[in-house]
C-alpha cells in the first residue's frame, strides 16, 4: 500500500481505536480480525462488522475537518494493520482519480450496508435483526450444500450473535430455540446450519441485495 505510513500489531482483546477518539487514520487489515461496534449506555455490546484480511476500517472523511470515531474497533485475535494517515490518503486521492472513485464506491457500499441493517430492524424488529444477521452470515461464511441447507462456517456464541443483532442474549436464545423447534435451523459441531433459507428471507421480505452489501464484514 503506497499510502501506508506504518504498521501496527494489535493483540487479541486490544483496541485499534475507541469511540470519541479523533478519526485521523484509515486502517487496512493485513492479518487477523477486528470487531467494529459500540457499547450502549446500559453496557450492551453492539457489533456492526467483523473485519478480516483485505478490509479497510475507519471513519476518515477526506478534505473535511477531523471528526471523532462514533464506534470502537477491537481485535478478536492477534491482528496486523497498515496505517494510512488522513493527509496521506487525501494526497493519494488527489493524485489518483481511479483511487478516488474506488474510495467513493467503498464509502457508498458501507452506507448501503448500514441502511439495509436499519431497514430490517425498523421494519421487522428483533425478528428482522436476527433473521437478516443469519442471512448476512450465510453470504460471508456460508457453505451451501446439495440439500439446500447452509452451514455457517464460523464459531459463534449466542452472546456474540446477540451482539450482532443488538439484543439481549436471553432474547436471542429464545428466538434461536423457536427456530430449532420449527426445524428452520440446526446445529452441527457447534455451528449453525440454516435449514430453510427461503423461510428466513420471506419473513423479512428480503430484497436479495448483492452479496457485497448483504454480508457481515
From TrEMBL:
Gene3D superfamilies xrefs: Jelly Rolls (2.60.120.10), Winged helix-like DNA-binding domain superfamily/Winged helix DNA-binding domain (1.10.10.10)
Keyword Metal-binding attached: no
Transmembrane segments: none
Domain HTH crp-type: 124-198
Keyword annotations of the record: Activator, DNA-binding, Transcription, Transcription regulation
Pfam families cross-referenced by the UniProt entry: cNMP_binding, HTH_Crp_2
CDD domains reported in the protein's UniProt record: CAP_ED, HTH_CRP
Keyword Transcription carried by entry: yes
GO CC annotation: cytosol
Domain Cyclic nucleotide-binding: 1-93
MF annotations from Gene Ontology: DNA binding; DNA-binding transcription factor activity
InterPro entries linked: cNMP-bd_dom, cNMP-bd_dom_sf, Env_Response_Regulators, HTH_CRP, RmlC-like_jellyroll, WH-like_DNA-bd_sf, WH_DNA-bd_sf
The name this protein goes by in its record: CRP/FNR family transcriptional regulator, anaerobic regulatory protein
Species of origin: Edaphobacillus lindanitolerans
